Amino acid sequence: QVEAYVGLRLDPDRTRCSVSYYAGYSYESAGGRRLAELLQSLAAIALEIPADGVQGMSLPVLRETRMPAVICEVGPPATVVKRAGALAHAIVEALTIWAVTPVD
Q1: Cα–Cα distance, 78 to 51 (Å, whole number)
Q2: pLDDT score of 102 more than 90
Q3: How far apart are the two ends of the chain, measured CA to CA in Å?
Q4: Euclidean distance between CA atoms 67 and 55, whole angstroms
Q5: Euclidean distance between CA atoms 39 and 4, whole angstroms
Q6: 92 burial class (0-12, 13-18, 19+ CB within 10 angstroms)?
Q7: Residues 42-55: pLDDT tens digits?
Q8: Rounded mean pLDDT of 24-41?
Q9: pLDDT at position 104
Q10: How many Cβ atoms are within 10 Å of 100's Cβ, its own excluded?
Q11: Which pLDDT belongs to residue 25?
């Protein structure tokens, strides 16, 4: 009964925000892509770091779920800790917009 999966990955060497969604050889998750685009934009603003783009990948957690799934990679850790509240708000906002906006 899960509607979406959002994974967070804290990378100590990262200074940007990127988000991945499922895309394979002949299919991509339209819902995952939309959520990834929203989350990437809002999380980068919340963390006050540059956006590094959205990319389709076929990682197991993205590929083997039925619901739209995304993985948000952020860093550096000190910035993420300092702006954790803003990041949490950005995740909620991205999910809210995604839930009420149909995929074109």
Answers
A1: 17
A2: no
A3: 23
A4: 18
A5: 12
A6: exposed
A7: 999 999 999 999 99
A8: 94
A9: 64
A10: 7
A11: 87
